[in-house]
Amino acid sequence: MIGRYVTRAVDAQGRWSKPLGEFYHRWLSALFRPIRPVKDFLNGTWLGHPVHVVITDVPIGALTVSIIADLIGQPLVADVSLVIGILAMVASAVTGFADYTDVDGTARTRATVHSVVMTTALVLYVVSLVIRNGNPPDRLVPIALSLVAYLVLSVGAAIGGDLVYLIGTHVNRHAWRGAGVKWVPLDLGGLPDIPQGGPTKLKAGINELAVIRDGDRILAVHAQCAHAGGPLVEGSVVDGVIECPWHGSRFALADGHVRRGPAMYDQPAYEVRRAESGDGWETRRRPA
């Protein structure tokens, strides 16, 4: 499989991509930390979907049109499409940098390689545009540069795709979790009752829940953050929302809705009631 060789080639870049990734992460985190609402917007919290993934289709489409227009002798169409593609690549990079601040380990290393490859493609496209702007009598060189840049772009796109499909970056951690309509027993793990305060980790079948109790009112969400799998039971609860200790995503306890990014997906929330037998508690997932 070609993908296997691409993966090996990317992993072999760790000697330079790891330290470069740490450098990138430091300055990007410092850049976005004071402007959290802007970062949330770039992440896609408002959209319920990663913005970066949406925007990256634009440069690929525009630059494909540019190549076709070059090959069939339509220079104006080719040049306009190239400008659109370059601007869209810049926009993609900005949203990608916002996402970059929340990745680590293998994901960060591969994201670093992805960013370097895409930056290389962008530079080649800019050089091609500059040459075109000079109205050369022969467009062979800028067209050749665009073709090489497109190949580099394709490799970068493949690496970016692997971040999602191979590693699971920004995949909803509850995508395959059944909604469930039946009430199931809540395992207190030896506790005499649900303790006041919280969050307390309790089990309901195969699911672990973060349960918060305030008098007779009991709220619960899944214990694993939808964004990157962080432990919500180690998070803090303020004004009816729970905050993930890893990246600071916040979810409303009443319905699991995202209140602050970088999470883009709602958190599964659960109803809790006294068991019909009167002994213990039971729970079921709330409708989305």
Keywords:
288 residues, alpha+beta, Rieske Iron-sulfur Protein, 2 domains, four-stranded antiparallel sheet, 8 helices, 10 strands, 48% helix
Description:
- With 288 residues, the chain is α+β, with helices and mostly antiparallel strands.
- It folds into 2 domains: 164 residues; 102 residues, Rieske Iron-sulfur Protein (3-layer Sandwich), CATH 2.102.10.
- The chain contains 8 helices and 10 strands.
- The mean pLDDT is 93.
Blueprint (SSEs and pairs):
Blueprint lengths: L1 H10 L2 H19 L3 H8 L7 H5 L1 H15 L3 H26 L4 H29 L6 H26 L18 E2 L11 E8 L2 E8 L2 E6 L13 E3 L2 E3 L6 E3 L5 E3 L8 E6 L6 E5 L3
Antiparallel strand pairs: 1-10, 2-3, 3-4, 4-9, 5-6, 6-7, 7-8, 9-10
Helix pairs in contact: 2-7, 3-6, 5-6, 5-8, 6-7, 7-8
Tally of structural domains: 2
Spatial extent as radius of gyration: 24 Å
User: What composes the largest sheet?
Assistant: 6 strands, antiparallel
Strand order of the largest sheet: 1-10-9-4-3-2
* Number of separate strands: 10
Distance between the termini: 39 Å
**Overall pLDDT confidence:** 93
**Count of alpha and pi helical runs:** 8
Shape: elongated
Provide a brief overview of the structure:
With 288 residues, the chain is an alpha+beta fold. 48% of the residues lie in helices and 16% in strands. The chain contains 8 helices and 10 strands.
